[in-house]
Amino acid sequence: MTHDVLRVGVVGAGVMGADHARTLHRSVSGAVVVAVADPDAARAAAAAAGAGGARVSTDPAEVCAADDVDAVVIASPDATHPALATAALAAGKPVLCEKPLAPTLEGALEVAAAAAVPGAPLFAVGFMRRFDPGYVVLRGAVREGLLGEPRLVHHVSRGVAPGPGATSESSVTGSAVHDLDVVPWLLGSEVVEVSWHAPAAALAGDPVLVDPQLLLLRTADGALTTVEVFLAARYGYDVRCEVVGSAGAAVLPVPARLHVDADLRRARAHDADWRPRFADAYRLQLQAWVDAARGGPVDPALATAADGVTAQRVAAAAIASMRAGGAWREVSA
After folding, report:
1. Smallest Cα–Cα separation from 238: which of 155, 173, 163, 164?
2. Does 305 fall in a domain?
3. Strand ranges (E), the chain
4. 96 has which bridge partners?
5. Among 78, 102, 121, where does a domain finish?
6. Domain coverage including residue 20
7. CA-to-CA dists, residue 210 to 45, 170, 202, 246, angstroms
8. pLDDT tens digits for 217-250?
9. Tell me, what CATH number does 247's domain have?
C-alpha cells in the first residue's frame, strides 16, 4: 500500500455489504471506501451513498482488480466467494471475505490454497464473533480454567425469518458455520464428530428447508456441544451460549437492553437481525483487518482461510449426517 489510508472496495451491496461499507466509512480509522460493486446498480448506489459517495460498479471482478482499490471486502452471495476471493488475491489485494469461504468444502479449499501461496496478501474470514466483547469474556473464563474442564456447551442461534433461497444445507453452511467456528475457538479443541437432528414437525414441513435444526458436536477434549439453529423463530434475533465445566458454568453476556415495566408486564425488545447485536464485533473486526492490511500486526482473533476450511469441514460432516438420518460423522482432516 502506497497511500496514507487503505482504499477499500466493497463487493456485494446487500444487507451485509452495505453495513460493512457504512461501518468502514463511519467507524473505522485508516480506511476509505472508494468503490462499491453489485450487479444491481441501484443497490450498489444506495450502499455507496451511505459510505461517503464511493464510485459505483456493476462488475465485482472489476473492483477486485481496480488500480484505485488497495483491499477488498467480499460480501456477495456465498457461491461467488471463491472466484472473487482468488481474483482479489491474484491482484495482490488484502481480502476480508464474509463467511463462509464457499458453500462447499471444495470451494473453501480453493480459496485457502490461493491464500497460502508464498507472498499472498492478508486474507481474513468474517467470523466476527471472535471479536464480540461477550464472547471474548466467555472465552477468557474458559481458557483461564475458571469453570474447570469444559464438559458441555449449549449454543443457540435464532432469527426472525430465513433469507431468500435458504435450504437445509445453507442453514448449516451459512448460519451454523458461525457456531462451528466459535465453539472450538472457545474451547481450544477441534470438532472431531458431528451429528444432525431435527424435530419431527420440521422434518414433515418444507422439503427444501428443515427448520429448526440441532447439531451435536464432540470436540477432541471430550466435551459435547448442542447447536440449535432456528432461522424462523419469528420473535427476534437471539444468540445464547453457555459453557458448563467440572467446576462451574458461564453464560454469554448480552449487550444492555432496556426493560420496560408497564401494564402489569415487564418487556425487553429483541433485535430484528444480527446487525445491532454484533455491531461492535463487526467494527472491531474491520478495524483489526484494516490495521493489518496497512502493515500493522495481525490480530490473532482474525480468522484465517485455514480457519474457514476447518469450519467448512465440520459443516460438510454435518450435511453428511443430515443425509444419513442423523448418524454420527467424523470430521475428516
Report:
1. 155
2. no
3. 6-11, 31-37, 55-57, 71-74, 95-97, 123-125, 150-158, 191-197, 213-219, 224-230, 238-245, 249-251, 259-262, 265-268, 329-330
4. 73, 124
5. 121
6. 6-121
7. 35, 10, 5, 34
8. 999 999 999 999 999 999 999 999 999 999 999 9
9. 3.30.360.10
Q: Is residue 99 part of a domain?
A: yes
In sequence order, the 6+-apart residues with CB closer than 8 A to the CB of 301 are 130, 131, 136, 285, 288
Domain identity same for 166 and 187: yes
| Counted domains in the chain | 2
**Interior angle at CA 43, CA 286 and CA 78, nearest 5:** 55
Per the model's pLDDT, the better-predicted residue between 257 and 24 turns out to be 24
For residues 269 and 7, is the Cβ–Cβ distance under 8 A? no
282-296 average pLDDT score: 98
Whether residue 51 is found in the same domain as residue 184? no
pLDDT at 181: 98
Q: What is the pLDDT of residue 2?
A: 53
Q: How high is the mean pLDDT of the chain?
A: 96
Judge if 112 and 232 occupy the same domain: no
Q: pLDDT band at residue 258, thresholds of 50, 70 and 90?
A: confident
In degrees and rounded to multiples of 5, residue 94 shows phi and psi of -60, 145
In the block, cell 431468500 appears at 164
Sort 42 into a burial class: Cβ within 10 Å, 0-12 / 13-18 / 19+.
Answer: exposed
* Residue 111 C-alpha from the chain's centroid: 16
